[in-house]
From TrEMBL:
This is DNA-binding transcriptional ArsR family regulator. Keywords: DNA-binding. It comes from Actinocrispum wychmicini. GO terms for molecular function: cadmium ion sensor activity; DNA binding; DNA-binding transcription factor activity; lead ion binding. CDD domains: HTH_ARSR. Signal peptide: none annotated. Residues 3-97 form the HTH arsR-type domain.
Length: 103
């Protein structure tokens, strides 16, 4: 696989992750650090099953990781660069949506 194909694959997976509002909310909720599905469900005001389904998608996209702690699972962003990318993308979108040109 070429570098271009690798980058294309990464962008497609990121696009899939960001294409759903609940998954975006989950990513934002994970920015401060790892969390458990029950905590995330409470934060988002949704069911644990809904959160679990979206976390599975985010894992399959390679965006989050899971650490099993006995019967519990703790989720976190896979890489610090993902945290920066999410913050940068959200900031860029806010800048553009307010009619300002990005610097």
């Amino acid at each position: 696989m070429t570098e271009t194909e690798t980058h294309l694959d990464a962008l497609v997976r990121l696009g899939k992750a960001l294409s759903d509002r609940t998954r975006c909310r989950l990513l934002l909720a994970l920015l401060p650090g790892p969390a458990y599905p029950a905590e995330l469900a409470e934060t988002l005001g949704t069911t644990r099953q809904n959160v679990s389904n979206h976390l599975l998608c985010l894992r399959e996209c390679g965006i989050v990781t899971v650490t099993h702690e006995g019967r519990r699972a703790r989720y976190a962003l896979r890489d610090e660069r993902i945290q920066h990318a999410i913050t940068d993308i959200a900031g860029l979108t806010l800048t553009v949506s307010h009619g300002h040109e990005p610097s």
